[in-house]
Amino acid sequence: MEQTMERTADLEIRELKRIATEVRVSVIKTVHLAGAGHIGGPLSAADLLTALYFRVMNVRPEHPDWEDRDRFVLSKGHSAIALYSVLAERGYFPKQELSTFDKLDSRLQAHPDMKLLPGLDMSSGSLGQGISAAVGMALAAKLRNKTYRTYCMVGDGESQEGQVWEAADIASKYGLDNLTVVLDWNQLQQYGWKGTDGRERRTPVEHPAERWRAFGFHVIEIDGHDFADILRAFEEAKAVRGKPQIIIARTVKGKGVSFMEDSHHWHSRVPTAEELARAINELRGGTAS
Amino acid sequence: MTATAEKLVSMRDAFGDKLLAMTREHDNIYVLDGDLATSTKLDKVAEQNPDRFLQMGIAEQNMLGVAAGMAASGLQPWVCTFATFLVKRALDQIAVSIAQPMLDVKLVGAYSGLLTGCTGKTHQGIEDIAIMRSLPGMTVLAPADSVELEQMMEYARSIKGPVYIRVARDAYPVLFDGGYRFEAGKGVWLRKGTDVAIISSGTQTSRALAAVDLLAAEGISAALLHLPSIKPIDREAIERAARMTGAIVTAEEHSIIGGLGSAVAETLVETTPVPMERVGVMDVNSESASNDELLRKYGLTPEDIARKAKTVLARKSG
Hints:
heterodimer; A: Rossmann fold; 8 helices; 42% helix; globular; B: alpha/beta; Rossmann fold; 7-stranded mixed sheet; 5-stranded mixed sheet
């Protein structure tokens, strides 16, 4: 019995990995085609977003406005292409539409636009704002006795915005245990600072867990690319009562493609045709670290 | 209707009372406070219908975002804080989280204008109209009295989407009776006249009425067009005022830059250019003082409006 369950879990994780690979391929292809966009951040967030939309969240892609759906807000809106790629995999819209990303009249704006694309629970793009909206959604659920949960992804660069901490304060004050924040802790930002390790373009906070704990959050620290870890973390978060939770996910910018990993150069660089082919080959062949 | 209406009603009290009544009538309305409830009169809701009152603390940016999230979940949040903090401190939040997605958040700028109870330039709100009317999809309203304010609040509640209402701190003459009906995008002719037309908005309308009387005493026939809705604006009425009189003066308790005067000028230059003068706070930083002292120093009294009317008349006949 136990063995069967383990096998099921293995299968589930293998399937999630397969989907996340397709998401990464879509991200890199789309940015190559569009000639613009972010890559590093979307690749660091890909596994977490895949887990959310394929296992964690209660959603109905065929009915994106379903009132009792779980909500997701991508506060780090510049990783929109990762979210679009996951939504397309999940069946919210045809995958071919990804090729319209960043183009005139597209529903796939550079940053998420809820007015245009069904399935987006919030517009975002100006950093620090999405988490407040997520707090509002979780608060609305409490006020109306709704059982849906709200998830929100913030970046570690984004966490330099004071509004993130204003939102954290209020989430904690109102005991929003129906809110789970995910920190995509890839430790790189567009220009940033020189780290104590001498590396360039680092984010400044070395111990985010202490900060979030001080703001009254239940803190769960994980490897943001390990699906077993990710699924366990969301289960733990769901069971918390009286407090909002944060999953601090240690991630790697550019994850999945050896020459993009942990490199600030790929924050928003566009891959050449040759780089695209190498990246897809690595991802599908599984030769990346 | 006279300029010196006997009855004065506090705008902020009228706001607090009306909002309280609305929370009792409509189960989707929630009120968000940035820790100014005793000044803005949100305390009426806090004390008498506490389930609908949400304290968001001294953190305006988050307050606007929380309101956006609530609206995205089917509620109708009413956010109220001082106009200057609302539209300047949290402008990007209003733009990105509320106006761009056209979420159903009602924004109330309390302590708008120059008269904010001796609090000075940090707390006065004289750029709110300029800023808010530049946002696509935003409705911008400025009531002249408590009757009009209450009707605007009903209107704001009845439509889905962002609305900004500026609310004065103090008491103003009641100009409208119970039969009055506010309409978005519609001006209200308060006086007929042939020599010059004064176009006013918000709290400056009662001072403009007094100016009409001052001008009449000098034999000048001034029309008065009140524009409670600055966006959308009544272009037709503005054009009519220009055609009828050939001389326009705008009057507002707001900066001379970007407010009612600018909105009227935009319409006039595109349709019926005539000589025009503007009454408003010039491009200077203000200060703290009593209402009367501020009105005098910054040129917003009925006498100032009448003087500008004569200036524009001279340009018209010259």
